[in-house]
């Protein structure tokens, strides 16, 4: 662990020593040069590894090194795997996992869609990976938690420094991972590196909504390089906030209109929600009841029934469709299920 904690020894230099096998640490002068070798010895003599382990234990954090058997297996395939990751909470890397990411300034329909999609994926036994950022990331974690599913937040800060701060409560309920040392604050350069971990940890990446310049598009590009499935949710052609995700679709990304599209891309088929799923509540519950009374209806009819805006109704219908409570019919109509 001392080498992983040595300033100036990043993933590439660490990997050079790691790949030299058991004698790598004995050859640090040759492999890294005299200056870094001296820095490594200072770190070792200062007992840095023991202090990090002690602090991590006090925070309920587990440092996991590239040399450990329980190091996340998909991260090993990166050209620059992090020498050390910090994990707070449990994460079973054997399950299928999907990254659900998108704009920090996502529109209401996109937030509803991300939340419903993540919930349905979690109900099907799929782990949901995201970045705890505002917007789509937050909605994705919330959706997975709503079904009692597993969700992993990969941070651009230390796992003990939650960003954004308003997500502290959410962070306490999800599994956290970071390659940054404990106590590290967020920085502009840390988020693109965080995105490569999100891409590597997932079997597929879904972009819910993203403008032309977006960190979510960086994640999509990294996922494509790693051979992961890249999918996107269609947005209105005139919507600036969806230009990036629509561009992905034009370039060949898979189309996501429901959770079954993602499950099919993973090759595990569409898994129906459990029969004893809870009835929807709040505005979604009121819309569902209205649709049950009508039998089937157009979104505009439901908007008039409930005195809601058309955009809000479409968002609620998307949420209910993903949770298995409504079904889309030809001609733009919907019917209630159950």
Outline of the structure:
With 338 residues, the chain is of the alpha/beta class. The protein has helices spanning 11-18, 28-32, 34-45, 48-59, 108-123, 136-146, 168-171, 190-201, 215-225, 243-250, 259-266, 282-294, 299-306, 310-322; strands spanning 62-65, 84-88, 97-101, 127-130, 151-154, 175-178, 204-207, 229-232, 254-255, 296-297, 326-328, 334-336. The chain folds into 3 domains: 11-88, no CATH class; 97-266, Rossmann fold, CATH 3.40.50.450; 282-336, Arc Repressor Mutant, subunit A (Orthogonal Bundle).
How does this model look, in words?
The protein has 338 residues and is of the alpha/beta class. The protein has helices at residues 11-18, 28-32, 34-45, 48-59, 108-123, 136-146, 168-171, 190-201, 215-225, 243-250, 259-266, 282-294, 299-306, 310-322, and strands spanning 62-65, 84-88, 97-101, 127-130, 151-154, 175-178, 204-207, 229-232, 254-255, 296-297, 326-328, 334-336. The chain has three domains: 11-88, no CATH class; 97-266, Rossmann fold (3-Layer(aba) Sandwich); 282-336, Arc Repressor Mutant, subunit A, CATH 1.10.10. The model is unreliable at 271-275 (pLDDT under 50). It starts with 10 loop residues before the first helix and ends with a strand. The chain is elongated and about 75 Å long. The protein is built from 14 helices and twelve strands. α7 links the parallel β5 and β6 (175-178).
């Amino acid at each position: 662990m001392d080498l992983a904690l040595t300033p100036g020894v990043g993933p590439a230099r660490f990997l050079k020593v790691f790949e030299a096998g058991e004698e790598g640490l004995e050859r640090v002068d040759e492999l890294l040069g005299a200056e870094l070798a001296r820095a490594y010895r200072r770190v070792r003599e200062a007992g840095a590894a023991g202090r990090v382990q002690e602090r991590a234990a006090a925070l309920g954090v587990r440092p996991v090194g590239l040399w450990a058997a329980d190091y996340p297996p998909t991260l090993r395939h990166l050209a620059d795997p992090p020498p050390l990751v910090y994990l707070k909470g449990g994460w079973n890397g054997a399950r299928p996992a999907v990254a659900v990411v998108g704009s920090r300034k996502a529109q209401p329909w996109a937030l509803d869609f991300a939340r419903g999609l993540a919930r349905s994926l979690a109900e099907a036994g799929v782990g949901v990976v995201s970045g705890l950022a505002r917007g789509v990331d937050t909605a994705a974690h919330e959706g997975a938690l709503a079904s009692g599913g597993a969700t992993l937040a990969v941070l651009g800060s230390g796992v003990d420094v939650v960003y954004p701060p308003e997500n502290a409560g959410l962070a306490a309920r999800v599994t956290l991972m970071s390659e940054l040392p404990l106590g590290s604050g967020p920085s502009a350069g840390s988020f693109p590196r965080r995105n490569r971990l999100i891409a590597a940890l997932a079997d597929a990446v879904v972009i819910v909504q993203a403008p032309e310049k977006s960190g979510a598009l960086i994640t999509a590009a990294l996922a494509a390089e790693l051979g992961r499935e890249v999918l996107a949710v269609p947005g209105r052609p005139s919507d600036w906030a969806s230009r990036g995700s629509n561009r992905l679709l034009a370039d060949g990304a898979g189309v996501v209109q429901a959770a079954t599209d993602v499950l099919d891309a993973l090759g595990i088929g569409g898994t129906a929600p459990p029969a004893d799923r809870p009835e929807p509540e709040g505005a979604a519950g009121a819309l569902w009841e209205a649709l049950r009374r009508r039998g089937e209806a157009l979104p505009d009819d439901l908007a008039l029934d409930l005195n809601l805006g058309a955009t809000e109704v479409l968002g609620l219908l998307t949420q209910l469709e993903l949770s298995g409570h409504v079904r889309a019919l030809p001609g733009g109509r919907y019917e209630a299920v159950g």
